[in-house]
């Protein structure tokens, strides 16, 4: 298609492009409006591509900008553009890949990948062959332009490129890329490695066939003069460590030597190389291959942890007092609410766990383990790139300390001595960070040094440099567990006193670090903090008046954690009168659509649970607002589904947080919540929330249903026929936390419904048995499932007992580890009832039952009698001789325990 622009139209567009480079906001806004208006004319996109590719008389920034505006048009309106226009743009872009200007080539490459992403590579079948042919061009610009485009396509579409839908183009592309590893241009060498690197992690077959050639070529380029090439070599080797260790093993010594040098580079290569140590630490061969190199590696990592001059400028390291400067909104990271989950608390018997009530789980919504990376929070500053050499070196030191444990210390201690007490604050700061990084891995070996180090760190909390004070907070939090285990007067009291001063520091970064560290101390110390509550609350309440926006959100966390840690000890009139007024004032000042409600609602939920009836005076307005937040979100959701164009989708986090706070109220107020429930439409709202498409909404709904069942079942009862089928339908372990809360709620409901649970047994029992027998079921879900099956057996033994043999072994194994409590008690009574109805069902797995019965510390008298009766009954049934043979299989500990507890 040949298309020519009208001179008037062209000059109008050039003027617009020039204006859009203006820094004046008014001009920018006018340009935006004009651009949207021009989008009504199909020809507009032809003009834009014409300016980019043909109008060589214009300056490059203007031409490139024209291409970027076109890219956005294609991204947003691509499907509405006429095929002829798209064809014209495609053809022009491919031509422009050989433009003499690197900027224009790069812009054309971005356009090509946008079109390929929008329309799908299968709808542009000639693209990849054309680009591959262009690589062989004698014209350097054409080759480099095509490679730039291919690199972007490999990044965006790695999976698609390996699919049969496209006829597996990688079989041709990968050998082709490998030919360019020895090209004379560093840019092209770098592009070639970057393209292939995209296919390592997925173990793409087309690459695995050529893996030896690839590795050999990487080694050849390892000493390349060009920085980008070396960076891509490091990146490739780090990924290969995960994927093809077998191929790297013969060269491991030289790779480690190489990475040691690269980690000390003065450019970004050092960060890519430093990732190598993090990845190596996860491999089983780490200790064996790294031991000889440790004495050289450890000092390199500690040096990498020092702030660079640039970091200090970005972090305003010379500004000591900034508490009066308001935060910029863009510096405040979005927060994600963690939905409420019913989990088991650790048992007293040694690290196992026992079920009771709802815990606001710190798990991600559907992963059982989701641990925050401490190095993410360390220098939390939006200007400092999220992941840098300092954080990577600290994380590497941490994971290696976990691999080598105390063997690490002979190398590290002399370095720590030198850095910790250095007069240069930057070096001292890196030493304090290193001391924090090894806390987890080297704890045993560090214990003899802590009586000297902890007091030294407490002194460092009042260092004159804010960056030293803030890292000291972090490091002390890593040793909080040890501090709490010592006599209070020695370390806990002085530490608490100094940390509370730092919470009121004049520097915002120090305030933040101190608040986070204090929250960790609260989790470790729990009720040990009760004697100091007045003192702690004084400080936290004072911080309310002092803090800017960002730290206020962290302060809510510290208060919520305090409430979780000391529980009902917070329920004293003098504490309530200190804490509640500032919280309620914030609550009244926040608008319904303000995301700051999330951390405040989470905090109030913990406080309500801890205060019990002490929260009553504040409960009504809080309850009403939660109901209104849920109602608003549901209305918005309905509006956006019925007229998608007119209304945008709501942020369902508002509803989730409100449901969780209602759970906290129900758990805290218990039967006192009855009057609030009776005068609201909470049951209708709950019915809708339980059927929401978003798993987190269902998860929080089921938690609330269980809590309301415990607090005021009279209001839940009339809706059981609607609720139970939904709960049964959600017994799907694909969403672990949803399934967990549904399981727990079924157990709570059955205890209240008693024999009226009978009609619902068929819809819930089979999925529960499937979950308990699934080898992948996480521990928390297993325990909750076992408790619920036990409770169903308690209220409907005749209906559940026939299935006994399908679950009794797994049931006993799951519940032997949880501590004595109400939930375990009701479950075991259910098991005894079922065995009475169907004794044959337990016979093949009776040893497991014996073991579970022995797991009780002090069962209630009547439960003890039931268990004893079953054990003695079994012994009589099989006769002395068989019983003796049976007992021979027991571990000695179990035999002793049964003899002592049940005289058998």
From TrEMBL:
Major location (coarse): cytoplasm
Biased composition (Acidic residues): 364-377
Location of this chain's protein in the cell: Cytoplasm; Nucleus
Region feature Disordered, mapped onto this chain: 329-377
GO biological process: protein import into nucleus
Keywords assigned: Cytoplasm, Nucleus, Protein transport, Repeat, Transport
InterPro entries in the cross-refs: ARM-like, ARM-type_fold, IMB1_TNPO1-like_TPR, Importin-beta_N, Importin_beta, TPR_IPO4/5
GO molecular function: nuclear import signal receptor activity; nuclear localization sequence binding; small GTPase binding
Pfam families in the cross-refs: HEAT_EZ, IBN_N, TPR_IMB1, TPR_IPO5
GO cellular component: cytoplasm; nucleus
Domain Importin N-terminal: 31-99
Protein name: AGAP005892-PA
